[in-house]
């Protein structure tokens, strides 16, 4: 586990945000997510953002992102711009859960 010159953790942070979109709310959710995606793309410390659609009829969507550090993620999450962008999403979501973690092991497939 690496540390920076201030002794703080320098590990990347991964965030998983699972939401259940209300029935009929998919387009509204996608429109608002597009605004959020454009905002986060230029944020310092942001590496990648992914949106996963449900593979069944659960209405469960997953947003995953990777950040250079926990500090970068929390600075963005607590920003006024972020708060303004996510507030309208609540109209289209009836359940949500957020997980934050640092990868300690990773297995990559062998390409042929």
**N to C succession of SSEs:** EHEEHHE
Q: What spatial order of strands do you see in the largest sheet? A: 2-3-1-4
Mean pLDDT: 89
Percent in helix = 25-40%
- The unreliable regions are 1-9
Sheet with the most strands, sense and barrel status: 4 strands, antiparallel
Give the CA-based shape: globular
Number of helices: 3
- Roughly how many Å is the radius of gyration? 16 Å
Oligomer: single chain
Number of strands: 4
Note the beta-strand portion: 25-35%
Question: Whole-Å distance between the termini?
Answer: 31 Å
Alpha-beta classification: alpha+beta
Describe this structure in words.
The chain is an alpha+beta fold. It is built from three helices and four strands; from the N terminus they run E-H-E-E-H-H-E. The chain has a four-stranded antiparallel β-sheet. A hairpin with a 7-residue loop joins strand 2 and strand 3. The chain is globular and about 40 Å long.
Tags for this model:
3 helices, alpha+beta, 29% strand, 28% helix, 112 residues
How would you summarize what this structure contains?
The chain is an alpha+beta fold and 112 residues long.
């Amino acid at each position: 586990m690496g540390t920076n010159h201030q002794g703080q953790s320098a590990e990347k942070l991964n965030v998983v945000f699972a939401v259940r979109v209300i029935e009929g709310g998919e387009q509204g959710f996608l429109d608002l997510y597009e605004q959020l995606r454009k905002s986060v793309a230029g944020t310092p410390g942001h590496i990648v953002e992914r949106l996963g659609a449900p593979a069944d009829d659960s209405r469960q969507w997953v947003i995953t992102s990777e950040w250079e550090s926990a500090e970068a993620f929390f600075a963005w999450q607590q920003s006024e711009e972020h708060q303004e962008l996510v507030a309208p999403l609540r109209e289209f979501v009836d359940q949500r859960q957020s997980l934050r973690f640092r990868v300690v092991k990773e297995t990559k497939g062998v390409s042929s």
